[in-house]
Amino acid sequence: MTTYTPGYTPGHAPTEGPLAREMRAALEAAFTPAHLAIINDSHHHRGHVGDDASGESHFTVEIEAAAFAGLSRLARQRAVNAALGDIPGGRVHALAIRARAPGEEA
């Protein structure tokens, strides 16, 4: 299941931006996740450092995949960052990662 929760004005349909779609595709290809949520937090950071006015500068990724079984939290974050290539720290200012294996608490 893939979900996307953007910052949006009530009454307007949520949309997934091109960077979020690229992140989703990369993570699905790398991990075949049981759960993947890409949450756009950019609206919370308007006018702050790192806000590039694109509307896609800050994200949270929640991912559950068998590939994370037995890995430390740091190893999981490194794996997600590696799968995303130049996106974290390059095209995205901030990325929070919540990675877990199936059966683990969120």
Write the layout of secondary structure elements.
Blueprint: E1 2-5, H1 18-31, E2 35-40, E3 58-64, H2 73-84, E4 94-100
Parallel strand pairs: 1-2, 3-4
Antiparallel strand pairs: 2-3
Compose a concise summary of this entry.
This protein has helices at 18-31, 73-84; strands at 2-5, 35-40, 58-64, 94-100. It is an alpha/beta fold. The relative contact order is 0.21.
CATH class of one domain: Alpha Beta
Name given to the CATH architecture of one domain:
2-Layer Sandwich
What characteristic shape results from the CA principal axes? globular
Overall mean confidence score, pLDDT: 80
Computed over alpha carbons, the radius of gyration is: 14 Å
* Class by SSE composition: alpha/beta
Low-confidence stretches: 1-13
Number of helices: 2
Strand-and-helix sequence, N→C? EHEEHE
Strand order of the largest sheet: 1-2-3-4
Please provide the count of β strands.
Answer: 4
CATH topology of one domain: GMP Synthetase, Chain A, domain 3
User: First CA to last CA: what distance?
Assistant: 15 Å
Q: Main sheet?
A: 4 strands, mixed
The percentage helix is 10-25%
Describe the model.
With 106 residues, the chain is α/β, with parallel strands linked by helices. It has a domain at 1-10 and 43-106: GMP Synthetase, Chain A, domain 3 (2-Layer Sandwich). The protein contains 2 helices and 4 strands; from the N terminus they run E-H-E-E-H-E. The protein has helices spanning 18-31, 73-84, and strands at 2-5, 35-40, 58-64, 94-100. The chain has a 4-stranded mixed beta sheet. The two termini are 15 Å apart.
